[in-house]
Fold this sequence. Notes:
The structure holds 2 protein chains of 2 kinds.
Chain A: E1 4-7, E2 10-13, E3 19-25, E4 31-37, E5 44-49, E6 56-57, E7 64-68, E8 74-78, E9 87-94, E10 104-105, E11 109-113
Parallel strand pairs in A: 2-11
Antiparallel strand pairs in A: 1-3, 3-8, 4-5, 4-9, 5-6, 7-8, 9-10, 9-11
Chain B: E1 3-7, E2 10-14, E3 19-26, E4 32-38, E5 45-50, E6 56-59, E7 62-66, E8 70-75, E9 84-95, E10 98-103, E11 107-112
Parallel strand pairs in B: 2-11
Antiparallel strand pairs in B: 1-3, 3-8, 4-5, 4-9, 6-7, 7-8, 9-10, 9-11
Amino acid sequence: NAGVTQTPKFQVLKTGQSMTLQCAQDMNHNSMYWYRQDPGMGLRLIYYSASEGTTDKGEVPNGYNVSRLNKREFSLRLESAAPSQTSVYFCASRGTARVVEKLFFGSGTQLSVL
Amino acid sequence: EDQVTQSPEALRLQEGESSSLNCSYTVSGLRGLFWYRQDPGKGPEFLFTLYSAGEEKEKERLKATLTKKESFLHITAPKPEDSATYLCAVQAVPLPNDYKLSFGAGTTVTVRA
Lengths: 114, 113
């Protein structure tokens, strides 16, 4: 079982470049999430999609956009990358929003912005 | 504002040397507390969910407990394969269409043979 699949695994950008991080899950989950992880800080929520057709801002949405393409796929776009966006990005999913339920995480994208 | 603090930041253990990790939290209306394990270069992997004070969960050498202000992850007789970063997260604050999950920064455990 693939679970949550993220691409790419590594990426280096120059300041001002744009890119899209892709995420797909094969568990028929309704809810999907994008987090960033920085040294010494907990995972922080960027955007989430509680169900297909909805997206909402998390704690740190500035500089990012998202698209819930269908039930399986949730992409994260950096329109004009900045060095402050250097981080490790994780996509996650779970069955349903508004319940106490574990998250399933992808393996992450390590992004460096020079 | 909700806060999740994990201590210590790093823990070095000898194989077989039991110890505990702490996760203290300040949230109103706790709905659930999660423990995850994260190996280098990988995403977090679920370990336990605790719902209310007094609850305990066990899995192999790991045991998680919960009080009204903190949770402990006890590692009994650890082995080198228990080396990882352990993350704590609390689910409490309502968001539009969901509930916020707040993560601690983690405790990195290294177990030497």
